[in-house]
Write the structure tokens for this entry.
Amino acid sequence: MASLEKVVEKLVRQKHEASKLRRQSERKLKEAKSLARRSSSGLHSVQKKLENTREKLGEINAEFNQFLARKESLERLIKAANDRLTQEMEAKEQAQIDLENADSDDAKQTASERLSQITEKIQELKSEIKQRESSSKKLLPTIEDQKKSKTKTNQQIHKQVQTKPTLVTLIKKGTTDSERLKRRVELATKKELTINKTLQEAKQKLEQFLAKKRSEAAKKAALKRAAKKKALALKRKRAAMKRKLAMKKKRTKKTKKSKKPTKKAKSKIKKVKSKKPKKSSKKAKKSRKKKSRR
């Protein structure tokens, strides 16, 4: 029995150890799966963010190119207006010279009209240049903002691109660890089931042995109780017999006491005896012999 109990205790310890190992493997497997799942989700999120950021960068580039083209167009128009202004200024100087050198009134009038047209044209060109320069200056902050936004978006794309390989590595690691730990959990579960089966068999044998022992002990106890009961009954029977004998002796003594004659009876007997004739000595001897025989 002692060896069977030790076997059961050993199997219980082995079962606890196997259960502990299985739980640890299951926890690690859960962590590995969670890592792979988070990394996969993170990679999907990064990929989506990367696509959105690239799309945003495309929009920023389009706007930036649009504003830049507009600025360049204004600069070309300003340059062209400055060129025309230079020409008109030269034409004005020539018109002034022609006006000064005019000999007739018609020539002076023609030169004066031409000078007025040139002056008006110069004013228009100056106003146009001023307006376009103002528009060009207004575009500068917008272009700078677009440059900053473009730089920031490029940095985000660079960071997201660098994050992808790390997430891919984590996904691979999580998947590999999951497969390895899955096999470990299967082995640990199988081992635990085997130990549990052996433990149940050992417990069953121990229970059968203990049940048999309890049955034998119960039989012994029943025999002991029966013997004790029998001895007690015998003891009571003997005590009853003793009490019965004692009661009988008491009754005998009481009857003997009741048969003894009183003083008056004794005196009467004496008187009767004195009146009766005495027996011969021979008869007296015979009667004494008969009494002694009796």
